[in-house]
Design a protein that fits this description.
The termini are far apart. Helix 2 crosses helix 11 and helix 6 runs antiparallel to helix 10. The chain contains 16 helices and eight strands. About 55% of the residues lie in helices and about 5% in strands.
Length: about 400
């Protein structure tokens, strides 16, 4: 629908859909429930409704634009800076083109404000502007740590290669594969061509003061990309809101190539189908068995914890570990130990210290009553020596990822 509204061409709409359906990024992002990946579909809905509102000038469409963009604030924290930047750029552009009605814009801005009130209160609490809100019908707590410091000009230099990363892969295997990239490597020229063409269309429309709907997609791209230059640890999932615009640019390149060089049409279709078949086989057959075996999207942590729980008296003795269960394993610890989460303190205050008998900070001196559960890859050799000198036996887990230090009476 978005492609149809921008170009009024059925063929382009089908090519746009074809690119989205077959590209690795959209398949991988939709296959599992990473919270931040919700931003792309909600942001896309808001952008689609914005284009529709500019065409129909109906208040209902303006209202839905405001609703979906406001809803995007609840999909991912980076939307709190991306969406306002996007709206500011769009408003500036539309002022130049005289392409909206102030009454409808003001009314939809009020709707956006209403939808955003809980987020605004959350920010006010966590920036220290107001006290915590603890009522029967709403609770807004001050977080133990707030990640606002992750946005800074100091990250600009190290993020200059973001576009390359967005086309290829990052350090997280669940975002993209080096062998295929996010939109397939052969499609990068199409994407770059479409990006340049859409940027030129935006500049021309700005100079001529004539609205170009494709400019909305360019501003969508620009808002995410510019914020991406300022964030710490930029990666594909943090910048997921950019991928609809990249798919649009790719479709622009494919569509123009399809028109100018008809002899290449079969080659383009075959390239996509062959790449998709190769990716599909790798993702479903090779990757889960040979590259990154997982259980419940976790690299065997649950099985190791269950092995520890079944083999050693973890409910009777303190268990010391310095890995904080990989920073995400508290859920698997509760599952492995069959701990009712209602019987422990809120995880917000215990995740960095203790859950049940598990202590996430090592004691300054060796506790002879404790079982030590340490990740081999980050094992302190001096601690290994001290534990063995203290009489501990050592046994690696069946996966070879963890080492268990224990006394014989601590076994089941």
């Amino acid at each position: 629908q978005l492609g149809k509204r921008i170009t009024q061409k059925t063929r382009f709409t089908l090519i746009f859909a074809f690119v989205v359906v077959l590209s690795p990024y959209f398949i991988m992002a939709s296959r599992w429930g990473l919270d931040c990946n919700l931003f792309l579909p909600v942001f896309s809905l808001g952008t689609w409704m914005m284009v529709k509102a500019l065409q129909t000038q109906r208040f209902k469409d303006y209202a839905l634009t405001a609703f979906f963009l406001g809803l995007s604030f609840y999909s991912y924290a980076l939307s709190w800076v991306i969406v306002p930047l996007f709206l500011a750029m769009v408003l500036f552009y539309l002022l130049r083109c005289h392409s909206f009605q102030w009454k409808k814009v003001i009314a939809s801005a009020f709707i956006l404000l209403i939808v955003s009130i809980p987020i605004l209160l959350f920010l006010a609490v966590n920036f220290g502007w107001i006290d915590e809100i603890l009522l029967d019908w709403i609770s807004i707590n001050r977080l133990y740590s707030f990640r606002s410091g992750e946005i800074s000009w100091t990250h600009f230099g190290q993020n200059l290669n973001n576009l390359k990363m967005l086309f290829s892969y990052d350090f997280l295997p669940y975002n993209a594969f080096q062998s295929f990239g996010t939109l397939y490597y052969f499609a990068i020229p199409f994407t770059l061509y479409g990006l340049v063409k859409t940027a030129v269309q935006t500049v021309v429309s700005w100079k001529s003061r004539k609205l170009c709907y494709a400019a909305i997609l360019f501003l969508m791209f620009a808002s995410v990309f510019l914020i991406g230059l300022l964030i710490a640890g930029a990666n594909i999932n943090k910048l997921n809101g950019i991928y609809l615009s990249l798919a649009y640019f790719t479709a622009v390149g494919v569509n123009d190539c399809w028109t100018i060089w008809p002899s290449l049409r079969k080659g383009i279709v075959l390239a996509y189908l062959f790449s998709f078949a190769s990716f599909f086989f790798y993702y479903l057959a090779v990757y889960p068995d040979e590259v990154y075996p997982q259980y419940l999207f976790n690299d065997t942590l649950l099985s190791d914890l269950q092995e520890l729980s079944e083999g050693w008296k973890t409910k009777e003795y303190p268990v010391y570990t310095n890995v904080n269960l990989e920073g995400y394993g508290n859920i698997f610890l509760l599952m492995a130990e069959k701990i009712d989460p209602r019987t422990i303190e809120p995880l917000a205050s215990t995740i960095n210290t203790q859950i049940g008998t598990y202590h996430f900070l090592l004691p300054e001196t060796i506790d002879p009553q404790g079982i030590y559960y340490l990740k081999i890859a980050t094992l302190d050799q001096e601690l290994d020596r001290q534990l063995k000198e203290a009489g501990y036996q050592a046994q690696d887990s069946s996966t070879g990822l963890y080492r268990i230090y224990f006394f014989e009476n601590q076994r089941h």
